[in-house]
Write a structure and sequence with these properties.
CATH architecture of the domain at 63-168: 2-Layer Sandwich
Largest sheet: 8 strands, mixed
CATH class of the domain at 63-168: Alpha Beta
CATH topology of the domain at 63-168: VC0802-like
Distance between the termini: 42 Å
Helix content: 25-40%
């Protein structure tokens, strides 16, 4: 994570990929590429922080740290169980770059594969690999914590291709932090922002919502109109617990209101 630039992946809803890509371009991201329900891009630590704070249509920002394919893992040895191959590969990762032996962690696995058939078993084997890495290195095992862990890991498997990523966001980015209570079935905030941005809303007129429900569209419209970063109201992001977290850089980005603008109409 000390490289000046690295690849990241911002996840989103199907149909909002182009909106998200434009957001990233305007933020200054490099190598922006649209994928299925995601946009891949590159940038430095500053871009990672800005992406989490400022993206309106993203659900989370992942930083891939390893990828591989089962078919290439052991010279096409079909006798090697897929999850055991994954265990071996994950155990080879230098986990000391990303966590400490006393760090807590949790794993989220998404599996679309005929080779890896059980996402729960994938999670167990990845957990075992990390625990055994630390047992051999430090004589102790880190703990899994489903609530407020230090490190969130994402394992994505598409057929034989496996990608292990650090989740820099933590809670989904649609959870802005401004909502103190939910009505019944409120619209997802990232989806609401995507609808508004697709419609071309930039705060150029009055805005009325006669069926406002919990007011999500109105709030997101106001944030867009004043160009206020949607992540300003959140209590924390996962990257704040990373070993290489730069508190000074984050404070500078978080407190920069130079992009905000005045709104002269009514909502």
């Amino acid at each position: 994570m000390n490289n000046p630039s690295y690849t990241m992946l911002a996840k989103t809803f199907k149909g909002l990929e182009e909106v998200l890509a434009q957001e990233l371009i305007e933020l200054g991201a490099n190598d922006v590429q649209i994928e299925r329900r995601a946009v891949r891009f590159s940038g430095d630590k500053s871009m990672l922080y800005k992406a989490n704070l400022c993206l309106r249509t993203a659900s989370r920002v992942l930083v891939p740290i390893w990828s591989g394919e089962k078919a290439k893992g052991r010279k096409n040895d079909k006798s090697v169980r897929a999850e055991d191959w994954l265990y071996d590969e994950v155990k080879k990762i230098d986990w000391s770059r990303y966590m400490r032996v006393d760090s807590t962690f949790v794993i989220d696995a998404t599996v679309y594969s005929e080779t890896f058939r059980n996402s729960l078993f994938v999670t167990y084997r990845v957990k075992d690999a990390i625990a055994d890495y630390w047992s051999e290195k430090a004589g102790r095992r880190p703990s899994v914590a489903t609530v407020n862990p230090d490190i969130l890991l994402n394992v994505h498997i598409a057929q034989e291709k496996v990608t292990v990523s650090l989740d820099s966001s933590g809670e989904s980015l649609h959870k802005r932090g401004y909502r103190v209570a939910n009505t019944e079935a409120p619209i997802n905030e990232a989806l609401a922002a995507g609808m508004l941005m697709t419609a071309g809303w930039k705060g150029q007129s009055d805005f009325y919502d006669p069926m406002c429900g919990s007011g999500t569209l109105l709030i997101e419209a106001a944030l867009i109109a004043q160009n206020i970063a949607p992540g300003l109201f959140r209590k924390e992001f996962a990257f704040e617990k990373w070993q290489d977290f730069d508190a000074d850089l984050w404070s500078e980005i978080y407190n920069d209101d130079s992009r905000e603008r005045e709104f002269t109409h009514k909502i």
